[in-house]
Amino acid sequence: MSLRSLMLDATVENIRHSVQRHMPVSQQRDFYLWGTAADNPLRDTFLYAMSVTQVINLSAYLLEDLVAPAQWQKLARYAGRLNTYFMYEIVSDDLAIGLSPLADGDTTYPLRRQTLYAFNHVMVERLSGEPTHSAKMLEPVQALTRNISGFRQSMTLEKHNLILRTYLQQRPAASQLDIEYGVWPVLVANIELCCELAESMRKLETGWMIRQGFIDRYQSSSELLEAGQPVPLSQLGDIGTRSILVSATLAYFTGVLAEVLDADAGLSSIISNGTLGDALSTAALLVRLLNDVGLPLTMSTYEREGLINALWHQHEMRPKAAGGMAQLLVSAAENPSFKAQFSHAAVLTRFHKDASAGEFNICLHNLAFEKSVADGLTKLEENLAYFSQLYQESQQRLQDLLADINTRLEARVVSTVIRRFVQFYATLYANPYRTTAGEYVA
Fold first, then answer.
1. CA 293 to CA 240: how far, in whole Å?
2. Count of domains in the chain?
3. Other C-beta atoms within 10 Å of 21: how many?
4. Neighbours of 2 (CB within 10 A)
5. For the chain, which terminal residue's Cβ has fewer other Cβ atoms within 10 angstroms, N or C?
6. How far apart are CA 186 and CA 94, in angstroms?
7. Which contacts of 367-374 are long-range, i.e. CB under 8 A and separated by 24 or more positions?
8. Angle ∠(244,360,208) on CA atoms, nearest 5
9. Rounded to an integer, what distance in angstroms lies between the CA atom of residue 64 and that of residue 414?
């Protein structure tokens, strides 16, 4: 059996165990147990809609040839626990779609903003040692979440609707509203599993890095919600880097590979001197840049000027069009004649995704506060120059850090996992985000 197959089995087993252990009794709980049941013909569709398939693919890509087959079963169990957390986390993360300054906002904007504030606060408190169960701590926002459709916030709405229709046909007494608007039980399960996950790794040398990576993620996510004004680019890069789960994920796999499966005597040295932490944060910055900017990061100064000039021309063709910079980027990304000017037709795909969905983007954030599209284009050119330079410098820094790690550790599994993680997202984000090859992965 392949490592991926073992990870699939372990992940499904962990999902079912976690749902029963961490998710409050609810129709949402019943729905998850039905969706992951072995005899459910729609189980694969359910797992794909919940992004479980995608995170399993990432785990298998990172780890498959780094561990002897005799240890695959144990590795799969550890990966399965993290994959289950990601399944919950994607639901929580989706609540932030449409909350950036670029978004027009909708009727659920204040509800989702308040819910996320509460969720982030409770998560940090629980990770910091607060003993009160998250169901009790999140009780004040439970009623608010009844007005938030988890399906509409998802990027797999059609698959969610297909699964729910089948479920309701089999269980006509179930309520569509209790499932589609049943975000609250998932938030509770997310917090409880995350805390349990961090606690289970506490005794490892990497344990504190895993926990701190989680805490940084939720603290910085609240900082993003508060970023309702122009922010210095260096600060945007820092917030963006801490708000994704790269450091926590890579610290987790480092602990599994270099402590649980095979003890590496050199691990203490790269933790104590800061080399590992520096490598993880540099990898996180690179992934954030790839997520938010993508292909323009690798353009020459001349090519970036060509991109900005093409956007100017797009604007001049429709000077009175509504929507400001967000709409300009979306219309350009969807315009065949615009895309034909570049060797990569998906040159704007990361901007397209975030501008159309109203998601936070470190390169676009400040554009929302410019008075005109002309000012926005000037600012975009400056932002691209800054982040492209930062990307080049960070690539070199990561290369140097991984070389140092290789000299200190007995095996190259840690440096390989870090390098592959960045490479995975570099490949993913070079493709149109609406395609299977370029779709969102946590």
1. 12
2. 1
3. 11
4. 11
5. N
6. 12
7. 367/102, 367/325, 367/326, 368/100, 368/101, 368/102, 368/324, 368/325, 368/326, 369/101, 369/229, 369/230, 370/325, 373/315, 373/324, 373/325, 373/328, 374/315
8. 20
9. 13
For residue 399, is it within any domain?
Answer: no
d(CA 230, CA 246): 25
Has residue 76 been placed in a domain? yes
Domain span at residue 190 reads 1-200
The C-alpha atoms of residue 258 and residue 205 are separated, in whole angstroms, by: 10
Question: Which pair of tokens denotes residue 159?
Answer: 């698959």
Of 327, 297, 272, give the one whose Cα is nearest residue 104: 327
Token pair for 229: 């004004």
Token representation of residue 185 = 């039980």
Torsion sign (Cα): 347, 350, 354, 360: negative
Residue 369 lies in a domain: no
Q: What is the reported pTM?
A: 0.94
The residue type of 48 is: Y
> At what angle are helices 72-94 and 52-63 packed, to 10 degrees?
140
Structural contact between residues 223 and 290, judged by C-beta atoms closer than 8 angstroms:
no
Q: Own/partner pairs for 132-139, CB < 8 Å, 24+ apart?
A: 133/192, 134/187, 134/188, 134/191, 134/192, 135/24, 135/188, 138/184, 138/187, 138/188, 138/191
Instruction: Mention every residue, 6+ apart, whose C-beta is less than 8 A from residue 203.
Output: none
CA angle 183, 185, 186 (to 5 degrees): 65
Distance (Å, whole) CA 332 – CA 352 = 9
Q: Is 40 helix (H, G, I), strand (E, B) or coil?
A: coil
Domain assignment present for residue 292? The answer is no
Count other Cβ atoms within 10 Å, centred on residue 131: 6
* pLDDT tens, the chain, 442 aa long: 899 999 999 999 999 999 999 999 999 999 999 999 999 999 999 999 999 998 999 999 999 899 999 999 999 999 999 999 999 999 999 999 888 888 777 788 899 999 999 999 999 999 999 999 999 999 999 999 999 999 888 878 888 888 999 999 999 999 999 999 999 999 999 999 999 999 999 999 999 999 999 999 999 999 988 877 889 999 999 999 999 999 999 999 999 999 999 999 999 999 999 999 999 999 999 999 999 999 999 999 999 999 999 999 998 887 666 668 999 999 999 999 988 998 888 899 999 999 988 899 999 999 989 989 999 999 999 999 999 999 999 999 999 999 999 999 999 999 999 999 999 999 989 888 876 655 644 3
